[in-house]
Design goal:
The protein has 264 residues and is an alpha+beta fold. It is built from seven helices and ten strands. 25% of the residues lie in helices and 30% in strands. Helix 1 packs across helix 3 and helix 2 crosses helix 3.
Length: 264
């Protein structure tokens, strides 16, 4: 397990007997360490070192660390130790290109095309795209990266009649820019559902995480000029991505609802 020299302990951080449990006291010490003293991705001291330094059992240390892992401030890496978590990409809810979004954040976007094919989509997708039974659609699987780190896996279906020969193009950049430039069909409307999913083995391998890791899954059906173009689901790493929504008291369905989360 990786070890990191722990800063000198101020007198106010001593673990005292009293109404506040020692694991809660230690949790706050480690929280301050993770938030103010160690950069993202830094190892924290080992359980053994923390137990000796603060005069508590390793079970107490494990409980304090486990709570911070659950809060997303720390991350355990099997066989290596516990590290301060990397900052999450903050997403607002609106239609925007993943490529544009990453560049605006000063990050380097990237795309790896994993699979492209023409297939018969499932009935739900055929209905969403306005295809008849047995009509094929374009199938596209891509991994999206930020500064070289895999952030999301996108698996999408695209309408072949409205986007002819889509799979013949370079699909390693912004798909929305391609749709606008080549087809005059940049998506301008969509609906989206969000759910929590554990990573299956295939998705975990593409994202470089362990199977069962928490993911945010976004299913989006988007259209341009009233014609549906795509039915795409993207799985984002829960440790690197979060979504912020602006809330008001307007009645659902009374106006347009911008969407984001897994944009191209």
């Amino acid at each position: 397990m990786a070890e990191q020299a722990c800063p000198a302990r101020p007198a106010g951080d001593r673990l005292a007997d009293g109404p506040t449990p020692k694991h809660a006291q230690l949790r706050e010490i480690l929280r301050r360490l993770a938030e103010t003293e160690l950069p993202p991705g830094s190892p924290i001291p080992s359980e053994r070192e923390l137990a000796a330094r603060y005069g508590v059992s390793r079970l107490t240390v494990r409980e304090a660390v486990g709570q911070l892992v659950a809060d997303g401030l720390l991350a355990r890496v099997r066989g290596k130790g516990t590290f301060t978590a990397r900052a999450r990409v903050e997403a607002q809810l609106y239609l925007e290109s993943f490529t544009e979004d990453m560049r605006q954040r000063g990050m380097r976007p990237g795309t790896v095309v994993v699979e492209r094919a023409e297939r018969i989509p499932p009935p739900e997708t055929a209905a969403a795209l306005g295809l008849g039974p047995g009509e094929p659609a374009y199938w596209l699987v891509r991994v999206r990266t930020a500064n070289g780190t895999p952030l999301a896996v996108e698996r999408g279906w695209y309408h072949p009649g409205r986007l002819p020969e889509l799979l013949e193009h370079d699909l390693s950049a912004s798909l929305y820019a391609l749709l606008a430039d080549e087809y005059g069909a940049r998506p301008d409307h969509g609906w989206q559902t969000v759910r929590a999913d554990p990573a299956d083995r295939a998705t975990a391998r593409l994202l470089g995480v362990r199977p069962g890791s928490p993911l945010l899954a976004f299913r989006r059906v988007s259209s341009a000029h009233g014609a549906p173009l795509e039915d795409m689901t993207s799985w984002y790493r829960g440790d690197l991505y979060q979504v912020t929504m602006q809330l008001d008291r307007s009645v659902p369905g009374s106006g347009p609802h911008p969407v984001h989360g897994g944009s191209r």
